[in-house]
Design goal:
The complex is a heterotrimer. Chain A is an all-alpha fold. Chain A has one domain. Chain A is 73% helix and 0% strand. Chain A is globular, with a radius of gyration of 23 Å. In chain B, strands 1, 2, 3, 4, 5, 6, 7, 8, 9 and 10 form a 10-stranded mixed β-sheet that branches. Chain B starts with a helix and ends in a 5-residue tail after the last helix. Chain B has 11 helices and 10 strands. Chain B is globular and about 65 Å long. Chain C folds into 2 domains: 71 residues; 80 residues. Helix content of chain C is 69%, strand content 3%. Chain C contains 5 helices and 2 strands, in the order E-H-H-E-H-H-H. Chain C has a two-stranded antiparallel ribbon. In chain C, helix 1 packs antiparallel against helix 2. The chains are: A mainly alpha, B alpha/beta, C mainly alpha. Chains in contact: A-B, A-C, B-C. At the B-C interface, helix 1 and strand 6 of B face helix 4 and helix 5 of C.
Chain lengths: 501, 325, 157
């Protein structure tokens, strides 16, 4: 109890609160610009935190990331340029709502779901971190292999209308992911002696190209879509309350899924958002509305990617194992500030860790008003005529693609994938599976190869561990379902005339 | 319509260029007169990134110009190292070179060697160590090596042919075993390898002490040997290779600051003296010791010799264990 | 721009075979059974197999659709020229961006695209200059992205 009071004293101080507030604004700004990632935002904060007290330093990072993850939804909904791969899962859903004049409702729902998801993820972190971490530690390459398969399957089979085109799109993504040196063998592939290609194709320029540049090209070609009405929904929060109440099961489901998958060091918010979106559609009473600008499609996935954030801290705090590059940076700062990760972090100086937890809650609550202001001001973008907006977006895209590695190679990637994405979309190939293929390709190959090395070539090993077996059976069942349905239909069609005769 | 577009486009271009031409050319002032870029060939969040960023922020105070950290990742460090080597040798682009510069050309990935750089200073070195689960049946390296003889053990900690893979293979060869008697399971880095170790996926992990520290302190992992002539500052109980098996085998990762070859001597001298101040500062020492990173200092000439020797050693080990092309 | 499925399928099948051939040139991984060729090979086989139905449906539709169909809104030659100029500007930036510099080139790109869409010359130039300088300030000064100065190097701030 004393520790909690001490912690409160550490948090409710002018310098801590000022640091949190500034980090929040910074996070919103960085997150809402395509090409700038939460990782980059945190990396920029690192030198500043050297000169700060432990609690404001960690607090600034926590807040910055929470804001950046939500802010990734804003350009996604307004301009169909997802800020993060995690928000790519539902970018089409949100953008369709904007086209229907419901931009505020889409973003407002995303905001409230993000806040609730964030709070649930944080609660899990505070209450059951050690238990969750134990579960996460049991995941080896076999389990991650099936998890990657499950994520990719979600994108292909559930989220698209034409499975064959979806699957081809996925294969194109996986092929792009296999470029470079970062494969288990460390052999250069598809590099043709060009050093820049050794690093492979980064998914940020790829995403900017496939979503944003293809949109710009379509606009330049003359495909001007009717300008969306801006003020169709007057009050941002009216109607959202009803949506939240109606889809409370979705939000709870998304949050729990996000926390669990987020806690796995090899997985994270991307896979969580995709699986959550697929589950949402699977269990929805109106699955046909998905993909047409249906608010239910936003609830699960928005909650999932923010709750994954709390989840990612679990293995980081308990065992010092980073779940993603953001927690990797934070672990470094924790050491620097003498809050060494490990079970001891809860015993030595507990007031510091309680203060961090409080900041987690505070950051998620602060997201509500600041996110509201951000949506209100970002929405003004829709008032700008598209012929002025599009060139400006192109400039942002080029800078964003450049900034990821500070080389024009990023812009070249963006351009190439923009053209590919344009052709794909014009011909009914969904883009999302290709993006997910680029994001998860390396994980898929690595876990497959290391699993086989480990089992010395025995494929049955993929089903020998209980969790792996469970995930594997579910994945294969999803693969086989369309085949069974097809056979069943053919069977009953053949029987029907026989019965009538 | 078309011609008016062409005219206006020309006008825009002309305006942009006129703005440039009107500017007076400034004379060469004292280096540095504008921001410096520090290229880190590894991703944000890793140890090299952290070291690069603390050096950058302290160097910034020392030089009075912003020092921007730029991560040029991918390709097992090839991309970033290449970027440092091919930058303009004007002192405005420097970078962190790591042990891999002495490895990748032996693997046939690039022609790039340490000779492409003007060394500034070596700042850190972390020896390899071997870690096993806390409940493993072997408590010493001897017992582990005995168990390894029938070829059933698997190890992880970095990618195929990475520095820790090499450290293990070299050690095995030095004690008279086949370098591949312990099968290497490639991982994306030390953290996923350690997680696999705890999940029961592999039998041992080779990586540095700071990388394994949290799990050692959590009582999940024990360290059997540190491949260095000296004990670790935080874990002095871990025996050296000499003490454990009487072998002189040592290997570790190192990090140093380099500039592209051809950088003027006076610029290098400015950087060396600034870096020396940084290296001796309390902030830097506190940071490195806080994370458990080994501190080391070698000026330009010594660093050049160090890199040449490292290159030669790595080459002979890689050839011996079959990892060189 | 709807390309007949048979053409797309054929391109993907060709890509699949190219990848198959390329994968055969990849070396084995020393000391391991499964090499770097396995993953691309599996992808290539998938590309070939799943493109076959695409070719079949495409050939069936060919008599009615022809090789390439443009949507109503994409009929104008002007639009196609605009797309080509946009792509060309990005390519030019990739090649000359570092030497010309972000600010001059950014002004040219934004200005050109605005003019292409029929925005008047004065507003185009004004918007291009303001936007480029604002982006430069946000990314270079605030976020420390090392955008190239190029020609403006002598007055870099």
């Amino acid at each position: 109890m004393d520790a909690i009071l001490l912690a409160a004293e550490l948090v409710f101080r002018v310098d801590t609160l000022a640091a949190i507030f500034m980090a929040a604004c910074f996070g919103l700004f960085v997150g809402s610009i395509p090409g700038l990632t939460a990782t980059m935002a945190v990396a920029l904060l690192v030198p500043i935190t050297f000169f700060m007290e432990p609690v404001p330093a960690i607090g600034a990072m926590v807040t910055c990331v929470a804001m950046a993850i939500f802010a990734g939804d804003i350009p996604g909904a307004l301009l169909r340029i997802p800020g993060t791969p995690a928000s790519a899962a539902y970018v089409d859903e949100a953008f369709r709502m904007t086209q229907k004049g419901e931009a505020e409702r889409a973003l407002g729902t995303g905001l409230v779901c993000s806040v609730i998801g964030g709070l649930i993820g944080t609660t899990a972190l505070v209450l059951v971190a050690p238990v969750l971490a134990e579960i996460a530690l049991n995941f080896s390459s076999f389990e991650y292999f099936w998890l990657a398969c499950l994520g990719l399957t979600s994108a292909v089979f559930i989220a698209t209308a034409s499975p064959i085109r979806g699957f081809l799109s996925l294969l194109i993504g996986l092929l792009i992911a296999s470029i470079g040196l970062d494969n288990p063998a460390g052999t250069p592939r598809f590099t043709f002696g060009y050093a820049e290609l050794y690093g492979g194709i980064d998914f940020i320029p790829a995403m900017i190209g496939m979503f944003a540049v293809s949109e710009i090209l379509r606009h330049m070609l003359g495909g001007v879509k009717p300008q969306a009405g801006v003020a169709a929904v007057r009050n941002l929060l009216s109607g959202i309350g009803r949506s939240i109440a109606r889809y409370k099961v979705n939000i709870a489901r998304g949050s729990l899924l996000g926390t669990l998958i987020g806690a796995l060091p090899g997985a994270g918010a991307d896979i969580a958002a995709w699986i959550a979106y697929a589950l949402s559609k699977k269990f929805s009473r109106e699955p046909a509305k998905f993909g047409t600008g249906h608010v239910e499609g936003l609830t699960d996935a928005s909650a999932a990617n923010n709750s994954a954030l709390g989840g990612a801290w679990v293995p980081a705090l308990v065992f010092g194992i980073p779940g993603d590059s953001v927690t990797a940076i934070v672990i470094g700062v924790l050491y620097l500030k003498g809050m060494n990760p490990g079970p001891t972090v809860f015993l030595m100086n507990p007031e510091n860790i309680y203060a961090v937890f409080m900041i987690f809650f505070a950051a998620n609550l602060l997201l509500l008003p600041l996110g509201y202001v951000a949506i209100k001001s970002a929405k003004q973008v829709l008032r700008v005529p598209r012929r002025i907006l599009m060139p400006v977006i192109l400039l942002f895209c080029m800078v964003g693609a450049y900034a990821i590695n500070n080389t024009v190679f990023g812009i070249a990637t963006m351009l190439a994938l923009g053209v590919i994405g344009f052709i794909m979309e014009e011909n009914g190939f969904p883009i999302a599976p290709a993006i997910l293929g680029i994001v998860l390709g390396q994980l898929l190959e690595r876990t497959f190869v290391t699993s086989l090395i480990r089992s010395r070539g025995d494929y049955l090993a993929f089903f020998e561990r209980p969790i792996a077996a469970g995930l594997g059976v579910v994945t294969i069942a999803i693969w086989l379902t369309p085949v069974f349905i097809m056979l069943w239909r053919r069977h009953s069609r053949r029987q029907a005339p026989g019965e009538s005769a | 319509m078309k011609s008016s577009f062409g005219l206006s486009l020309a006008a825009v271009a002309a305006m942009a260029l006129a703005g440039v031409a009107a500017l007076p050319a400034t004379a060469d002032a004292q280096y540095p007169e504008r921001p410096i870029t520090l290229i880190v060939p590894w991703g944000a969040g890793g140890g090299t990134d952290a070291t690069g960023r603390i050096i950058a922020s302290l160097l910034e105070e020392e030089l009075g110009q912003p020092v921007n950290v730029v991560n040029r990742t991918g390709g097992s460090g090839v991309v970033g190292h290449q970027a440092i080597a091919t930058a303009d040798p004007d002192g405005y682009t420097i970078g962190v070179a790591t042990v891999e510069i002495g490895m990748m050309h032996w693997q046939g990935l690039t022609d790039l060697t340490h000779e492409a750089y003007a060394p500034i200073a070596l700042v850190n070195a972390d020896p390899a160590a071997i870690h096993v689960p806390a409940d493993a049946e072997y408590d010493t390296l001897d017992a582990l090596l005995e168990a390894a003889e029938d070829g059933q053990l698997q190890a992880s900690g970095t990618g195929q042919g990475g520095i820790w893979h090499l450290a293990l293979a070299g050690l095995l060869q030095d004690v008279g075993l086949a370098p591949d008697v312990i099968q290497w399971v490639p991982s994306e880095g030390a953290a996923p390898g350690l997680q696999d170790l705890v999940a029961g996926g592999v039998d041992l992990v080779a990586c540095s002490m700071p990388e394994a520290r949290a799990l050692v302190e959590a009582g999940r992992v024990k360290s059997l040997v540190i491949m260095s002539p000296e004990h670790d500052a935080i874990f002095p109980d871990v025996p050296t290779t000499e003490e454990a098996v009487g072998s002189t085998w040592t290997l570790g990762a190192w990090r140093g600051i380099v500039a592209p070859a051809g950088t003027p001597d006076d610029v290098v001298a400015t950087l060396v003296s600034a870096l020396e101040t940084v290296h001796q500062s309390d902030e830097f020492r506190e940071f490195m010791l806080g994370r458990g990173y080994g501190l080391l200092w070698a000026g330009p000439d010594e660093f050049r010799e160090f890199m040449a020797k490292s290159d030669e050693d790595l080459g002979s080990v890689m050839t011996a264990v079959g990892l060189a092309q | 721009m709807k390309i007949n499925d048979a053409i797309l399928g054929a391109v993907l099948i060709f890509l699949g075979f190219a990848v198959l051939l390329y994968a055969r040139t990849l070396p084995d991984m020393p000391g391991q059974d499964i090499g770097p060729n396995v993953f691309p090979t599996v992808i290539a086989i998938g590309l070939i197999v799943f493109s076959i139905p695409l070719v079949v449906t495409g050939l069936r539709k060919w008599p009615t659709t022809g090789a390439v169909q443009f949507a109503d809104w994409a009929q104008s030659g002007r639009g196609r020229l605009n797309v080509l100029i946009t792509l060309a500007l990005i390519v030019l930036y990739i090649v000359f961006g570092e030497s010309v510099g972000f600010i001059p080139f950014g002004i040219v790109i934004v200005g050109a695209l605005l003019l292409l869409q029929g925005v008047g010359p004065i507003p185009s130039v004004a918007v291009a200059v303001v936007v480029t300088l604002a982006v430069h300030y946000a990314f270079y000064s605030l976020l420390r992205v090392p955008l190239p100065w190029g020609l403006l190097m002598p007055i870099a701030w």
